[in-house]
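Incident log, entry 3
Record: Crp/Fnr family transcriptional regulator (244 residues)
Problem: checksum mismatch between cached and fresh output.
Input:
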Amino acid sequence: MKTDFESRGAYRVLARRLLERAEGFDQCTAPTIDALLEDAGIARLKKNEVLMRRGEPCDCLVMLVEGALESSIASGKGRRHLLTFILPGMLVGIIPCVDGGGVVHDTVAHIPSVVLKIPAEVVRRQRAIDPMLHIAFEVQLASRSRRLYDKVADGMLHSLRERLAQQLVEFVESFGLQRGKEWTIALRLPQSDLADLLGAARQSVNNELRGLEDGGLIRIEHSHIDVLDLGQLRAECSSMTCGP
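Fresh output:
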């Protein structure tokens, strides 16, 4: 059995590989990556553990190494909008590291997760040294803006069924485990989370899920979803940007 020290060492190796492949950061020099990682720490998060709270100061740039995080915004009345799931290799805290302001989303561990924390002062120091790190941040922000614009457009132009099908295809691509012709989404997906993610009523999402299940496209069991016909599920969202 690996000791905690050995596990952390293995996670640092994995973190380096992920950071070197991250959008924009793949153009940074090895010395810049070394400098970012030198004072970075590995942290483990329990399920539902809060990583960042909206509006709070941000003292680090975070990259997910293993697991899955939820990014959301909650109202004062307790209503929540789930914006996205953060997957291994994705970064949190880009905007605060650029403008020095507070965190823009709540970020919570959806399942037990491992993150790399790079101190914000280290990031700012390296951005002053290496112009490619400026470009890395610009690429990250541009990519996020495109996804945001696409999401807004999808909400106005496409039906809930199409958007649900697209989301399930994306989950297959990120968390899918293939068993023959079927795919199991290896992520617990309560209907309340899907409703938050799609900005729809839970009952409406339930109706669309049942429609896909009745059509033989998916199978639902205790907050887990199996995709039985990935090709047909892609066809449901063929008018959208829906998988390769």
